[in-house]
Amino acid sequence: QVQLVESGGDLVQPGGFPRLSCLVAGITLSSHDMSWYRQAPGKERELVGFITKAGDNTIIIDSVKGRFTISRDNAKNTVYLQMKSLKSDDTAVYYCNTRWGARPWGQGTQVTVSP
Questions:
Q1: What's the order of all strands across the beta sheet hosting 78-83?
Q2: Distance between CA atoms of residues 113 and 88, nearest Å
Q3: CB 83 within 8 A of CB 70
Q4: Which residue(s) pair with 12 in the sheet?
């Protein structure tokens, strides 16, 4: 049974730089490209970006490019989303999943950007 457990979200000030973690269980992480998604209040869930199996390539959406970085540690079964220069528009629940969101969703982790 696949489990995705996101953590690291918090109330942060604009410009903050939290790091989110996604602990993955039930699959061999090194066999999967992994994605981060987010869902802002009143909006649909959107893809933030993804990282290839070995971590040698990432794709990030334009709205967060240069501010968000995805990385992974397959030995720790963990995928990371390093955020910086946060804006109020980044307020959302953040989720991880396999590349196309094929696995059951975790509970997500809330990031709230507010002065």
A1: 3-7, 19-25, 78-83, 68-73
A2: 5
A3: no
A4: 113
Rounded average pLDDT per 10-residue block, the chain, 115 residues: 96 96 97 98 97 96 97 98 97 96 94 96
Residue that is written with structure tokens 């490209």 in the block: 33
Cα 100 from Cα 38, distance rounded (Å): 14
Local structure of residue 42 (DSSP, 8 states): T
Structure tokens at 76: 């720790």
CA 32 to chain centre: 15
**Token output for 25:** 């269980």
Q: CA angle, corner 20, sides to 15 and 24, nearest 5?
A: 170
